[in-house]
Amino acid sequence: MQQPLPGMAPFSTERVVNVASVRQRSPFRYPGGKTWLVPRIFQWLSARSSVPKLFIEPFAGGAVVGLSVAFENLAEHVILVELDRQVGAVWDTIINLGEGPWLAEKIRAFELTHENVDALLEAEPASTRDLALQTIVKNRVYHGGILAAGSGKIKYGENGRGLSSRWYPQTLSKRILDISSIRERLTFVQGDGLEVIREYSNREDAVFFVDPPYTTSKKCPGSRLYTHWQLDHDLLFATMAKISGDFLMTYDNVDEVSKLAEKYSFDTKAVAMKNTHHARLSELLVGRDLGWLER
Question: What is the pLDDT of residues 247-291, one digit of tens each?
Fold first, then answer.
């Protein structure tokens, strides 16, 4: 068993993690982001007998979990997968193209006015890195960071600050440069998360963190939050049942997920969290054995 991270100790699944205490690594504001889960991911990986060769996040989105694992050296290499073209452009620019310094400089230099934002967002990006800049700005000035069609710009924002409510160019630039500094430990794949899971399904030294931006809930909030929100959940569970390595999935705590977990003989545990409106909720963790939560 690995040594736990400094200052980390087992904690009750009823305790809500204070996200302000978790180091922010992603430049995104991401709907459904998993900052609150990061300490539990650390707990899961620290309970293992050895550091995994690969940590794979097949539905990366804002990638806060995968990035946190890479920064803390809790896996030898991290693979991030994302289907969304806009989000993918950011990760491709920073990780694969090595253009993080360019993106960081453009963010620092961008003068945030309604006119400049409109001009940037209405332009057709000439390159991947141009789309990455457009995406970061859009993510920061749209309601809730939502990039899907139908979203729109912030009007009033926090304390009446309007567009600048979530615009922190120095902080965003630093996060991007920090990611650039460890990009040799990262791989980004623009593509289908299920296909990547299958590609590495025989690797016993790989672990998967699966957080699909799609829900089994009949209310289907994913349809307004994400461009790609449709998924065969039964197929995902069946795919995870066949992998050789370990995995952890997180889902809405709803009957549909519990029934799928029971169908495939997976272990489940409800853990406390708060949403963006600070309402106390619970999410369901799904895995082969969640006994590490009690240690």
Answer: 999 998 888 999 999 999 999 999 886 545 444 567 899 999 999
- pLDDT tens digits for range 86-112: 999 999 999 999 999 999 999 999 999
Name the one residue in this structure whose structure tokens are 């963790």: 285
Q: In the chain, what are the domain boundaries?
A: 1-83+191-295, 98-185
pLDDT in tens, 108-126: 999 999 899 999 999 999 9
Among 135, 141, 148, which Cα is nearest to 224's? 148
The set of residues, in sequence order, having a beta carbon less than 8 Å from that of 135 and lying 6+ positions away, is: 86, 87, 89, 90, 147
Closest CA to 57 of 177, 270, 212: 212
Check: CB of residue 2 under 8 Å from CB of residue 45. yes
Topology classification of domain 1-83+191-295: Rossmann fold (3.40.50)
Task: Take residue 50 and report the two structure tokens written for it.
Answer: 């050895």
Instruction: Specify whether the CB–CB gap between 93 and 100 falls below 8 A.
Output: yes
SS3 139: helix
Model pLDDT, residue 131: 97
